[in-house]
Amino acid sequence: MKFFDINSLNEEQKFALFYGIMLGDGCLSKYQTKDHGERFSVIITGCASDDLPFYEQVLTPLLKSFGRKSVSIKLRKDCGAIEINFPDKILFDRINSYGFIIGKKGPKINIPKCFYEKDLLRYIVAGFMATDGSLVLTKNPNKYYPRIEGNGISETLIKQIQEYFLSLGMNGAFYLAKRKNVNSKYNTQQQYRFQFNGKDNLLKFNELVGFANPKHQKKFEDFLDYDTHYNRKIKGIPSQEQRFVRLNIFSGWRGS
Q1: Is the backbone peptide bond immediately before 141 cis, with ω within 30 degrees of 0?
Q2: For labelling, which of 3, 136, 189, 198 has a CA lying 20 to 30 Å from the CA of 67?
């Protein structure tokens, strides 16, 4: 599976991908204006340091396919974020009609049954993984290993995605996520996590789901290059001597 081509998706697949993005980094906002009218906004917020290509190459054409003539990406210097924020009553109502919560999503957000019935779960999951999912590369002890993971405060949503991966033949688990600072008044909600380790899981994810965020696609391709180089270098070397070779392979490589 190659990097997502928005133009190859039909209308329902595009909306499912967008709904998955909203489950990760999106929200619906409804408030009263100064002239006593109502404003219905769709908001997606990402990381300023590495999400701009995703916003430009995926989110912008996706929103334009829904009829938006222009899409403005704003930099929020106060929190190191980028944001797309626009009023759209029609899109707002469509998203909300699937049970998407207005305001803070909270722990009850989930993947609606209709996406299962229409065989659109892959696109929902791809959208979520592009935002709240990660491809992590860890060194253990002298080789980098990949890990597909995702976090959220909705136990139902995280379990739904974990179970979908299991249905694809991937092997992984569901966990209670550790809180970084248990004493913080801003970190009071329980987080949940799924984790799928190893190259086999990574290859299955790429083939059966696919990366919708360029930063994840690049990290995937970098890892494959590294893994090929690594295996070639230790081939034919006795196992007791491999550790000396491992220490020198891409010593400065950080999986970026």
Answers
A1: yes
A2: 3
